[in-house]
Design brief:
The protein is mainly β and 142 residues long. The protein has a domain of 98 residues. 8% of the residues lie in helices and 35% in strands. Strands 1-2-3-4-5-6 form a six-stranded antiparallel sheet, covered by helices on one side. The longest helix has 11 residues. The two termini are 34 Å apart.
Length: 142
């Protein structure tokens, strides 16, 4: 995202991609789903997280770092902590970022858009937290 004529904010990978989690030889335990006995309409989705290994892979590949770089060739600077960033938007005065970060526990019933998430405002120059706006729960049970 262009901040102005000289600065760009972007997401960058954090981990070396050759260090991905290794798949366990045997399952770590059974996959258990509970029903409360209530009938509710629910959609079905493809390619959801199904195992703890899937969770580890999702976290590994989705974790990024927001960075700001000057197009003159200066070194990129990190903004905030590495996280799973769902979205970020620049304020009209270009001083702040509204960021949405995805949190654990990850749902086995919904895609990433239904995972718990945090909305906060950070400083667009330093990445320091300005204000926590909301901590939204998972879409499960809604």
């Amino acid at each position: 995202m262009w901040v102005d004529d000289e600065n760009i904010i972007y997401k960058s990978v954090v981990s070396p991609l050759d260090k991905q989690p290794t798949k366990p030889l045997a399952p770590t335990g059974p996959v258990i789903q509970e029903s409360t006995g209530k009938m509710a309409a629910s959609r079905t989705y493809q390619d959801l997280i199904k195992t703890p290994y899937d969770e580890a892979l999702f976290e590994f590949y989705a974790t990024t770092q927001l960075k700001k770089i000057n197009t003159s060739g200066a070194q990129a600077t990190g903004l905030g902590a590495p996280a799973i960033y769902g979205s970020w938007n620049l304020s009209p005065n270009k001083q702040y970022l509204l960021v949405r970060t995805i949190n654990k526990p990850f749902s086995y019933l919904f895609p990433w858009s239904g995972f718990p998430h945090t909305m906060k405002v950070i400083d667009a120059s330093t990445g320091s937290d300005i204000k926590m706006l909301a901590q939204n729960p998972s879409s499960e049970g809604q």
